[in-house]
From TrEMBL:
Swiss-Prot/TrEMBL catalytic activity: N-acetyl-D-glucosamine 6-phosphate + H2O = D-glucosamine 6-phosphate + acetate
The organism's taxonomic lineage, starting at the top: Eukaryota, Sar, Stramenopiles, Ochrophyta, Bolidophyceae
Species: Tetraparma gracilis
Keywords in alphabetical order: Carbohydrate metabolism, Hydrolase, Metal-binding
Amidohydrolase-related domain mapped to chain residues: 74-414
Full protein name: N-acetylglucosamine-6-phosphate deacetylase
Keyword Magnesium among record annotations: no
EC number(s) on file: 3.5.1.25
Matches recorded under SUPFAM superfamilies: Composite domain of metallo-dependent hydrolases, Metallo-dependent hydrolases
InterPro entries xrefs: Amidohydro-rel, GlcNAc_6-P_deAcase, Metal-dep_hydrolase_composite, Metal_Hydrolase
Family statement: Belongs to the metallo-dependent hydrolases superfamily. NagA family.
Length: 419
């Protein structure tokens, strides 16, 4: 064998429908012009780097490519879930969380089409943050070998503890604190690590709390994205928070002041001159279908999140969310003995299908809300899209039902539904 062996042949995914990104996300642009769409095209992948190739140059390249037949189905970017509290029996907020737990959950998420995600923590006490957050720091700095065939951890979403206590939902009341004084010392005393050495990449906070606006500036100056939620803020405070750097609303409608025509609250930011993205739990349990559709008609900047907890992927019965007891029954999870929803038990695959059903949007638009939109919230351009140079983390979706059939990481098949 020659020592000058040629590079491995690129993979050419053929016989597939590819979702293209929207031509523009300008709200004023007619949806028919702005919407993502599906096109029958090939996708080329460099099998050694795992990156998507420019199809114009790869098509004429040498060596000839190796075809991968997609059977006429939709080949989409892998889903990106920026709010996942746990799944498959793993609770990311558990004080006993281990590296093996993170690895196991990350691997099993591939079956739901998720190839990257933000493990999300409910509001915890400083001693529990000090136990849990270092697990993610270790996982990110020295991933276990199994991480090569698992959904990528993008960093932690700290949902809390800087909430409005009246909007805490299923979060433990004694853990809720104000972000004051708005200093790096407050950050490290709560989360147990300096602001520039924390695995946190996204926080959800209530902008009306004392110190919140300068705290948003502090976080964004340190490359931590800020989402507004668990909040009773009025519209004006919401506008000020977006001006301070917040770029997202967390689970629109849930734990947020309802829309009122004289006091419209955070929901009206969707139609403001500088609209943020907004996440929504489109499982049909947390938000009524008509309300999902209203949000979609106000703004196309929808980000699908599962907000799933440990019971996702498991059977009905008793489960845990942080230190709180939760009961799962069918498609709902509530704090035991109450009607308070405690995270969802929905998969991203289900949310994509429900969004399409509830809003009447096209498949490519629903896929975009689970891929390109969440990636852009985190400022990531190397995933959530099918551009040359992006990671070939892909899902093959049934063109009619949008069910996940296969999941690829770097162009390599890592999960396949039983036939
Ligand atoms: Zn929440």
């Amino acid at each position: 064998m020659s020592s000058f062996s040629s590079p491995p042949a690129p993979l050419q995914f053929v016989n597939c429908l590819l979702p293209s990104p929207p031509a523009s996300t300008t709200p004023s642009q007619p949806p028919s012009l702005a919407a993502p769409s599906l096109a029958a095209l090939s996708l080329f992948v460099d099998s050694s780097s795992g990156l998507i190739l420019d199809s114009r140059t790869a098509f004429y390249g040498n060596p000839p490519s190796t075809p991968v037949d997609c059977g006429g189905d939709i080949l989409a970017p892998g889903f990106v879930d920026i709010q996942l509290n746990g799944a498959f029996g793993v609770d990311f907020s558990a004080p006993s969380l281990s590296l093996a737990d993170v690895a196991a959950c990350s691997a099993r998420l591939l079956s739901t089409g998720v190839t990257s995600y933000c493990p999300t923590l409910v509001s915890l006490s400083p001693p529990v943050y000090a136990k849990v957050l270092p697990v993610f720091s270790s996982y990110l700095s020295s991933p276990p070998p199994s991480a090569a065939a698992a959904a990528a951890v993008l960093g932690v979403h700290a949902e809390g503890p800087f909430f409005n206590p009246s909007m805490r939902g299923a979060h433990e009341p004694s853990n809720i604190v104000p972000p004051s004084p708005p200093t790096p010392a407050t950050f490290s005393s709560v989360y147990g690590a300096p602001i520039d050495r924390s695995p946190i990449v996204l926080t959800t906070l209530a902008p009306e709390q004392p110190g919140a606006l300068p705290f948003i500036e502090l976080l964004t100056d340190n490359r931590i994205k800020v989402s507004l939620g668990h909040s009773a803020a009025d519209y004006e405070t919401g506008v000020a928070a977006v001006g301070a750097g917040a770029t997202l609303l967390t689970h629109l409608y849930n734990q947020m002041t309802p829309f009122h025509h004289r006091k419209p609250g955070l929901i009206a930011l969707l139609a403001s001159p500088a609209p943020p993205n907004y996440s929504i739990i489109a499982d049909g349990v947390h938000v009524a279908p008509a309300a999902v559709r209203c949000a979609w008609e106000m703004s196309r900047k929808m980000v699908l999140v599962t907000d799933a907890m440990a019971a996702m992927g498991l059977g009905d019965g008793a489960h845990k969310l942080g230190t709180m007891d939760v009961t799962k029954e069918g498609g709902r999870a509530v704090l035991t003995g109450t009607e308070t929803l405690a995270g969802s038990v929905a998969s991203m695959e289900l949310c994509v299908r429900k969004m399409k059903e509830f809003t009447g949007c096209g498949a490519a638009e629903a896929i975009w809300a689970a891929t390109g939109q969440p990636a852009s919230v985190l400022g990531l351009e190397d995933r959530g899209n099918l551009r040359a140079g992006s990671r070939a983390d892909l899902v093959l979706l049934d063109k009619d039902t949008l069910e996940v059939k296969k999941t690829y990481l770097g162009g390599r098949l890592v999960w396949e539904r039983d036939k």
